[in-house]
Amino acid sequence: MADAEHPTAADAAVVVDNFETRARRFFDLVNDGNIQQLRVLIDALDADELNILLRWMVDPVERDYIRSRSALWSAVFRQHTDIVDLLLEKGADPNEPMIFGENDQRTNMTPLYSAVLHANLELCIVLIERGANVDLGSDFGITPLMLACDRSQTEIVTFLVENGANLDLGSDSAITPLMIACDRSQTEIVAFAIGQRTYSSSSAAASSPVPFHHRKQAKDTHQQPAQPLTDHGTGNFFLSAYATSEQRIASDSEWKKTPIGQTGLYNMGNTCFMNSALQPLFHTPGFSQLFQEKSAQRFVNGNNSFGTNGVISGSFSALIDLIWSGKFNALRPGIFLEFFARRVNTEMADRQQHDAQEFQLYLLDALHEDTNRVNKRQSFEQNYDDTDLGASASDFNERSKLFSSSPVNDLFNLTNISVVQCSTCNTKSVRFEVVNQLSLELPTNTDCLTLKDCLEAHFSSASLEDKWDCPKCKSKQPATRSTKIWEIPKVLIVHLKRFSLIDGHYVKNDVEVTFDVAELDLAPFLHEKSTHHNAALSLYGITDHSGRLNSGHYTSSVINLISTDREWLSFDDESCIPCGTAPSPTSKRAFLLYYKQNDQQQQQQM
């Protein structure tokens, strides 16, 4: 048998074959928190057997389990403090990280990092007293102290610093704990940190600025000094938010090999509105690829004051990467919702029922601002006529890019052209309007209608209720307004407005709508002078709503993004059912419809 410090897989298999019942019992007792029976069992094991169970990362009962963690890590994860202390006393390694995957790809998510993640000061104390490295945390150089600062855990921050945590130790993206505390406006933590640094400076002549066992890490930090946040063109907190979200979501979710694209999302109270809005985005051509971690880092602009400094895009990217990993049956995106509340919209993160379309608008806007290429916006006024619409449209596009430009808007933005015409002299005024969703009214005086009916009503000419101030007549005159499509986006989201406010209450319109699946032809709604030739789109996703706004339920159906045969999937929170063919094209529940351009060359570019 190999030496006791480094058992081999063969050693583990031999030992387990001889004490499988006790091994199974050992891990069951650790997970259940039964310390009394665990002590009895440990006393019955010989030294080699105990060493295997303490140090070998693969549970000998479930060797093929896709997520592997030591008994100590399991005890920390379940916050069994007394069992953690017992295992450390018996020789468990306090710095052994959790392993993800089947090839021992370490994530460096240490037990101490997990204790901070659970805001458990008592566990932190036990681990530090038993020899845990206070600066060893997770991927991307995220330390336990950084995590504690990010989560406003003042007591844990104080404890970690007093026990040698390095305030100047930067992450791989050169972000330090003090930077995080400043960004979160955590006055108490900032004051404490500055006080600690002042004390360290005054005593520098007598001692090293960090404890002896941390000197190597401190030296590495000085070789790559932390830079101001504004110097990071890829986004200030993208990597920090990504790493924290990836670890938290993975820890909170159950690992199970799943066909790629079929991972669901747990309902965390009444969050089906969020789940049903996210799944179609995950399967949106071009969008999911854009926000994979390696791609998104290139687009995030940390200098845009209207964005979230990469926080929401980092968390969203982690969610996308885990969704497409094929390692989870369902994910619990609690940390994503926390970041959404902190940086985007507090009201929609109370885990109550909300409007899926409203949530999606907030999210897309936040992701747009995070990837907005413009730092200093240049606003402009439109003053176009119908003399040369092509030139006017080009001028509008160029000026718009100086105000707002992102890969998100490049994908979703629909450009309409609105023409107001004086009924007296026929003078025309032209405006271009950009939206990232097309919202269509649903009439209440019919039992059924088609999507084409809604489009015709939306793009029909209408007389203005108020007279128009005609620049040629130099007086207010009757006028008409007509709106047409000027440019069709690569991805078009159609919102069927089923909810309306009547007498202070939201009322749902359950009218049956028949929509196009194989091909939605927008050619009849294009402006006659538009140069956009491809007007054919195909359906790839639906968000449905059943019941009332405050007591209803959202679900979604999508075409699997990686499917070659247009396989449809039906999502109901954590449940995913492959349904083969497309859903019924006639529905009282359809709320959001997702279309993509049919042009093959366009799809390849996406």
UniProtKB/TrEMBL annotation:
Domain USP, residue spans: 263-598
Lineage: superkingdom: Eukaryota
Enzyme Commission number(s) from the entry: 3.4.19.12
Keyword Cell membrane: no
Reactions it catalyzes: Thiol-dependent hydrolysis of ester, thioester, amide, peptide and isopeptide bonds formed by the C-terminal Gly of ubiquitin (a 76-residue protein attached to proteins as an intracellular targeting signal)
Keyword Transferase appears in the UniProt entry: no
Protein name from the UniProt record: ubiquitinyl hydrolase 1
Source organism per UniProt: Heterodera trifolii
